[in-house]
Amino acid sequence: MMYDDEVDVALQYLPRPQFFVQTLPQNLEDGKRFIEDLKQLRIVAMTQPMFELLPCDLSVVDIWAHPQKLDRDASYRYRPRPFEDTQLAAASPGNTVITLKKPIRTKVDTHSQVYKGDMRIGSEKSREVFVKIYQQSLRGLPEERCFDDNTWPVLWRHAGSSAALEAWAYNQLTVLQGSMIPYSFGFYKVELPHKEVSIVHVLEYLDGATLRETDRITIEKRLGCSLLHAAEYIMPRLYRMQRLGIIHGDLDMRNIMLLRSIAVEDPRSALVIVDFNEAQPSGDGNDFMDALDLLALLRELGVHINDIEGWYLRHANSNPRPEWLAMFGTRLRDDIYFTLWMRRMRIEEKDLEIHARIKS
After folding, report:
1. What SUPFAM superfamilies does the record tag this protein with (predicted)?
2. Beta carbons of 211 and 222 less than 8 angstroms apart
3. Cα separation of 290 and 237, whole Å?
4. How far apart (Å, rounded) are the C-alpha atoms in residues 28 and 36?
5. Dist CA 27 CA 141 (whole Å)
6. Calpha distance 275→181 (Å, rounded)
7. pLDDT-based confidence at 357, cuts 50/70/90?
């Protein structure tokens, strides 16, 4: 199988990395049997899906907890934390109950299943949480050539690898938990109702919707500002993520939430970035990715290319320049990635105009 650089980095920096490691086939014949076993497990899982069994308690068999206490930055606004460090430290398979209550995302061939649920530790009161299940049987199946050394290697990530990437990202970004990203309450190995053992990530429950589920007018009304002004809030936090070693790698409208509860002091704090299972280490020639993805998101929401260019130039010509502008350039040319992105957007804009003329 192809060597997976990102997962290797994650496992190097995580305590108890064996929690996320899964034994995989090392040759083609074993790979074929592995694929057939997954197909059979999928049939069993779909015969009576979990969303038909709600409410459903998951049997916890092992726990991986974040080793660090949460940092705090006085310049950030933090949401109240449902679980304290002492409570999470007391969690064990015998005293932890995770209950699924409402399906949020339950699809086949997706990286995870997501439910709204509760978690209770010992005699403490249960708290509302998101439960993200890395269920191998419902993920995309590998191709046979993934296990064939005689063909060009194909990258395929098993569920444990995706969970490891997210654990590593949240571990690196402790200062942003409860602010720009959700609180993480750890990773748990559980036995699902059909006896499949899966890793689940228990996260802060956020009452809101993804940007894909709303529109520009609603977003700007909720935030009390333009989308470009909101981008000025997000960009420094993306840059902070990079300085902490993390590139999100999949920043789009599915992975930014708009919370219903708005802070009076800064309504923009209602924007929260989720889903870090495609995270990458920063500093590997990829530092422009999240910034350009955010610009693409603005375009998708209807912000005109000229407005984005004017917004960028205003910051580029300011004194002092914002630190986050470094994401758009290199040491040799500080605007190279923005310039190339603008050039591509102009070409796409002209192509759309040509197609519109042809149709008319």
Report:
1. Protein kinase-like (PK-like)
2. no
3. 11
4. 12
5. 16
6. 9
7. confident
Asked if residue 199 lies in contact with residue 134, where contact means CB atoms within 8 angstroms, the answer is: yes
Nearest to 275 by CA among 184, 166, 179: 166
94 closest CA partner among 63, 117, 129: 63
The single-letter code of the amino acid at 142 is P
- Tell me the residue type at 26: Q
User: Tell me: the pLDDT tens digits for 300-319?
Assistant: 999 999 999 999 999 999 99
Burial of 55 (0-12, 13-18, 19+ CB in 10 A): exposed
pLDDT digits (tens, 9 = 90+) for 178-215: 999 999 999 999 999 999 999 999 999 999 999 999 99
Place of tokens 């992105």: 341
Strand partners, 115: 103, 131
- CA distances for 298 relative to 170, 220, 254, 256, 269, angstroms: 26, 12, 13, 12, 18
Delineate the domains of the chain, giving CATH numbers in brackets.
5-204 (no CATH), 208-359 (1.10.510.10)
CA distance 74 to 78: 9
Residue 249: name the closest of 284, 217, 220 by CA. Answer: 284
User: 74: which residues sit within 8 A by CB, 6+ positions away?
Assistant: none
C-alpha–C-alpha distance, residues 178 and 312, integer Å: 29
The pTM of the full predicted model, rounded to 2 decimals, is 0.92
Beta bridge partners of 191: 59, 197
Whole-angstrom distance, CA of residue 340 vs CA of residue 42? 44
Contact 135, 45 (CB under 8 A): yes
By three-state DSSP, how is residue 113 classified? strand
User: Is 67 in a helix, a strand, or coil?
Assistant: coil
User: Is 57 within 8 Å of 98 (Cβ atoms)?
Assistant: yes
Query: Residue 7 in contact with residue 165, Cβ under 8 Å?
Result: yes
The answer to whether 219 and 211 are in contact (CB under 8 A) is: yes
Q: Phi and psi dihedrals of 167, rounded to 5?
A: -60, -45
